[in-house]
């Protein structure tokens, strides 16, 4: 090779490296600029995709797409802010009453009834612990202070997380509203990106990601909200203290795929300690049905209209949430569904090539 040709190759390589470096720097700075808003934008996209069918139905019924979207956004914000405000107000009020009672050395814990002794297996021990807490709450508190501190820290962390999600969701609704108003242009842009990345399968896979997000919204979040609302109704009817807090915990446990009976079980036991036999029994049966309802609702709502097994979507949603938090519910399901689809395409291509080579 001539020396001049080598110099040209070196110069070309340097030029390509500089251009790639500048492009990388440009995209990296752009990522840093958008990073603080990335979570809100992703939540906005998820909300827009999830609520788009509802908006379309309402638009056909009422007319005026912008009005429908604005009213829906305001209603959703109101439905989030009011329960959150009520919950925080109730927690603050309960905390103040407990602190006041402790300072005045009053009995904070009500006296247990004889029904507690009738609880199977743990009745006598529960009655003695409850009675000690009633007679001397501070001494009992000191006895279990390490465990109480750990539980309180987790509860505070969960409550902060819930409040943070509520605030971020409200802000994301503005993004979702903007995307829903400009639905046609946003959809065309998304299709163009997917077709540029995946070629002729881009439009098909774009539709699959949309349906996966809606499937997770219906099958995971929707079921969790239904369970929380049903549990809240039962607890309010039986006058359970801090009912909104326990309902939020039921929703959180259902989202992360832990049994709601972790919260429902102790509440049932508490109601049995003061309520009449028939009312407490009906409440227990009702709450047990609520706790087990996700096993019936999830197969019905999850995976509808998606050519992906429900188990794949569920694993992606749970794993994504463990890895990335609440937004991972949707991103994890989409990414895992795409990986599953790629794997199945690879298997199909291998099967086709094997059948062609067979004699």
Please tell me about this protein's structure.
It is a single chain. By secondary structure, the chain is mainly alpha-helical. The chain has two domains: about 1-180, no CATH class; about 200-345. About 85% of the residues lie in helices and about 0% in strands. It has 13 helices and no strands. The protein has helices at about 5-60, 65-105, 125-135, 135-145, 145-180, 185-200, 200-235, 245-255, 260-270, 275-290, 295-300, 310-325, 330-355. Helix 1 (about 5-60) crosses helix 7, helix 3 packs across helix 4 and helix 7 runs antiparallel to helix 10 (about 275-290). The longest helix is centred in the first third of the chain and has 60 residues, at about 5-60. The chain is elongated and about 95 Å long. The model has no long low-confidence stretch (mean pLDDT about 75).
N-to-C CA distance: 48 Å
What is the molecular shape?
Answer: elongated
Largest sheet: none
Q: How is the quaternary structure best described?
A: single chain
The percentage of residues in β strands lies in under 5%
Give the number of helices. Answer: 13
Helical fraction equals over 70%
* Number of domain units: 2
Report the mean per-residue pLDDT as an integer.
Answer: 76
Which class best fits the helix and strand makeup? mainly alpha
Number of strands: 0
Q: Helix and strand string, N-terminal first?
A: HHHHHHHHHHHHH
Low-pLDDT residue intervals, each spanning 5 or more residues: none
What is the CA-atom radius of gyration, in angstroms?
Answer: 28 Å
């Amino acid at each position: 090779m001539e020396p001049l040709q080598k110099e040209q190759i070196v110069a070309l390589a340097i030029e390509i490296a500089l251009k790639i470096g500048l492009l990388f720097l440009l995209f990296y700075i752009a990522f840093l600029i958008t990073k603080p808003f990335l979570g809100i934008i992703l939540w906005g996209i998820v909300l827009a995709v999830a609520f788009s069918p509802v908006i379309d139905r309402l638009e056909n019924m009422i007319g005026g797409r912008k009005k429908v979207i604005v009213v829906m956004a305001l209603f959703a914000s109101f439905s989030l802010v009011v329960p959150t405000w009520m919950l925080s107000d109730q927690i603050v009020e309960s905390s103040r009453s407990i602190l006041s009672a402790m300072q005045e050395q009053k009995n904070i814990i009500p006296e247990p009834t004889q029904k507690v002794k009738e609880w199977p297996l743990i009745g006598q021990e529960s009655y003695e612990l409850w009675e000690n807490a009633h007679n001397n709450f501070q001494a009992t508190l000191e006895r279990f202070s390490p465990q109480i501190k750990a539980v309180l820290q987790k509860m505070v962390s969960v409550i902060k997380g819930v409040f943070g999600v509520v605030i971020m969701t409200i802000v994301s609704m503005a993004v979702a509203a903007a995307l829903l108003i400009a639905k046609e242009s946003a959809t065309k842009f998304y299709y163009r990106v997917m077709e540029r990345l995946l070629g002729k399968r881009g439009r098909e896979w774009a539709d699959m990601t949309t349906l996966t997000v809606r499937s997770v919204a219906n099958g995971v979040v929707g079921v969790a909200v239904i369970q929380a609302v049903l549990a809240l109704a039962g607890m309010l009817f039986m006058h359970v203290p801090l009912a909104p807090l326990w309902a939020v915990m039921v929703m959180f446990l259902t989202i992360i795929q832990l049994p709601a009976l972790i919260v429902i079980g102790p509440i049932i036991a508490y109601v049995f300690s003061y309520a009449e036999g028939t009312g407490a029994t009906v409440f227990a049966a009702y709450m047990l049905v609520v706790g087990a309802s996700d096993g019936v609702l999830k197969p019905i709502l999850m995976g509808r209209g998606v050519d992906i097994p429900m188990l794949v979507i569920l694993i992606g949603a749970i794993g994504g949430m463990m890895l990335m938090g609440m937004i991972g519910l949707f991103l994890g399901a989409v990414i895992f569904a795409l990986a599953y689809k790629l794997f199945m395409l690879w298997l199909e291509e291998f099967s086709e090539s094997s059948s062609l080579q067979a004699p």
